[in-house]
Write a structure and sequence with these properties.
about 500 residues; Uridine Diphospho-n-acetylenolpyruvylglucosamine Reductase, domain 2; Uridine Diphospho-n-acetylenolpyruvylglucosamine Reductase, domain 3; Vanillyl-alcohol Oxidase, Chain A, domain 3; 7-stranded antiparallel sheet; 16 helices; binds flavin-adenine dinucleotide
Length: about 500
């Protein structure tokens, strides 16, 4: 039986637009599209459920659904893979959820101008399976490579594990088609031509319509960058007796200027303890190993060979012990599996219980990493002292700059949470801890998020502090483009734009 608070007439209109078989109002279709892998207040699940789910197959259908939502003043929420870690695809006020998964076509592979045009519902794994045959790839490579989709990558302005060499999502998406909150379909990119990489005509709108967490429209098609399929991949892992030596070595490796370098990652002692304990893909190191640095390179075989020689020399000269080929290659190869860690973890008393994974993902200047690490672990310790359900799974810092992998680092603290234990008290403590973590990032000249976005409870409260005058502009843009606040309302505190007195 259908359970929905939308009128039967409205649901019929949705069926008229998308087709009878592509509109769902049953419980499982709706509840399944509320959940995300970030810590989720399961004790309040039914507050976040959409009233209806639609699976459109064309931009015109999306446009008609958005116009309908405006006429009826009903919220509308875009959803792609549902792997976002900042609740972007979670409906906060019910309404119509637009699931773009069926818009997964590869429409045009252009090997001459080096682009591929796709629907927003395709994932990078499937796309590259096809592209590889042509000697090219689309190098957006998050840890969620097999499960996040192009639409969500644009909605979050995602971050790639090999971004130091190939850039991140914003660098790799050349242009896209988007349905605005009032239903118009427009193209944005670097200039008018779909395949132009750099233009100075007008505002740089492509960037405005990336990373907005579905609050400024729904992407219905995207034209993406193709790069030659790399001939060679090289990864090297180094071990260190302490964090400070590893941190200095990380800086030296990242600043080496090696053109094929795709990323450098610094793991701290608590991260190693977690890996030793809970990660079956990890080959345990002896206890004197307190920190590990991982590096990866991609490119033509002759360039990678020369770069690898230099990289190995720097790693060893700065105090690193090469961990050998098996660990270096095996661990790097596991990078897409590593962070999907549900049902891992333990209580501090030693008992193993199912825990799900949470991560913070601030951008932190290199110079501030040691201090931020201390303060973040102290926040996690305080949570663990008060509640048995939390566990500190350690930190890593990963070169963040596209093409110039030095300067600031995507810095994560991973926290295990026994989610079945949530209640209002622990949830409130958690939200406060997230605020505290974000405040530390800002105090050290960082950004709350390099990767996932910052629209969850807790961190979102500090977004106005981070953006200053830019926050006022954000509200004006939102209200101008979405006069009825139908497009993913409640996110990023943007409802403030519609409060009395806001102009
Ligand atoms: C195990 C794991 C590892 C991860 N590793 C990384 C990583 O390395 N790098 C990284 O950047 N992220 C990572 N993430 C986070 C997540 O995968 C990314 O944020 C990803 O970009 C989300 O894509 P999605 O398709 O799942 O989007 P969803 O979660 O469905 O949506 C994300 C946001 O985009 C909006 N959106 C969805 N589709 C559209 C559309 N068509 N038009 C406009 N807005 C839209 C949604 O409303 C939402 O606000 C990881 C997540 C997990 C679970």
């Amino acid at each position: 039986m259908a359970v929905t608070s939308l009128s039967e007439g409205l649901v019929d209109e949705l069926r008229g637009i998308c087709g009878h078989d592509y509109v769902f109002t049953g419980r499982s279709a709706r509840f399944n599209r509320a959940r995300v892998p970030a810590p989720f207040p399961v004790h309040r699940w039914d507050e976040f459920v959409p009233d209806a789910v639609v699976l459109p197959r064309a931009a015109e259908q999306v446009s008609e659904v958005v116009k309908l939502a405006n006429r009826h003043r009903v919220p509308i929420v875009p959803r792609a893979g549902g792997t976002g870690l900042t609740d972007g695809a979670v409906p906060l006020n019910g309404g119509i959820l637009v699931d773009v998964k069926l818009m997964n076509e590869i429409k045009d592979i252009d090997l001459v101008d080096r682009t591929v045009t796709v629907g927003p519902g395709i994932n990078m794994l499937k796309l590259n399976e096809e592209l590889r045959r042509h000697g090219v790839i689309y190098p957006d490579n998050p840890a969620s490579y097999p499960c996040s989709l192009v639409g969500g990558r644009i909605g979050t302005s995602g971050w790639s594990l090999i971004g130091g060499r190939y850039g991140h999502t914003r660098d790799l998406v050349i242009s896209f088609q988007i349905v605005l909150p009032t239903g118009e379909i427009i193209e944005v990119g670097d200039g008018g031509g779909r395949k132009v990489r750099k233009s100075s005509t007008g505002f740089q709108l492509k960037h405005l319509f990336m990373g907005h967490q579905g609050t400024l429209g729904i992407v219905t098609e995207a034209t993406l960058e193709l790069v030659p399929r790399p001939e060679a991949e090289f990864s090297a892992f180094f071990a260190y007796p302490d964090y400070d030596t590893a941190w200095r070595s990380t800086g030296a490796l990242a600043k080496s200027g090696i053109a094929t370098l795709a990323g450098v990652v610094l793991f701290d002692e608590r991260k190693l303890a977690y890996l030793r304990r809970d990660d079956e893909a990890y080959i345990p190191q002896p206890p004197e190993v307190r920190s590990v640095v991982a590096t990866a390179m991609y490119g033509n075989a002759d360039e990678v060979r020369v770069g690898a020689k230099r990289l190995m020399r720097i790693g060893v000269e700065t105090g690193g012990n090469y961990l050998g080929d098996e660990i270096s290659h095996g661990d790097w190869a596991a990078r897409h599996d590593r962070y999907a860690t549900p049902l891992h973890g333990r209580l501090r008393s030693g008992q193993v219980v199912p825990m799900s994974w949470h991560c913070e993902d601030a951008a932190i200047p290199y110079s501030a990493l040691p201090k931020v690490r201390e303060e973040w672990h102290a926040i996690a310790d305080s949570l663990m002292e008060r509640f048995e359900m939390f566990d500190d799974w350690g930190m890593f810092a990963y070169t963040n700059g596209p093409y110039k992998p030095w300067g600031d680092y995507l810095t994560e603290i991973d926290i295990g949470i026994w989610e079945m234990q949530w209640d209002d008290e622990s949830w409130a403590a958690w939200v406060q801890a997230k605020k505290d973590i974000s405040a530390v990032a800002l105090r050290y000249g960082g950004s709350i998020t390099a990767c996932h976005g910052a629209s969850r409870e807790g961190e979102v409260d500090l977004v106005p502090d981070e953006l200053g005058g830019g926050w006022e502009v954000m509200k004006k843009v939102k209200k101008a483009l979405d006069p009825h606040n139908v497009m993913n309302p409640g996110k990023y505190l943007l409802d403030e734009a519609y409060e009395e007195g806001e102009s």
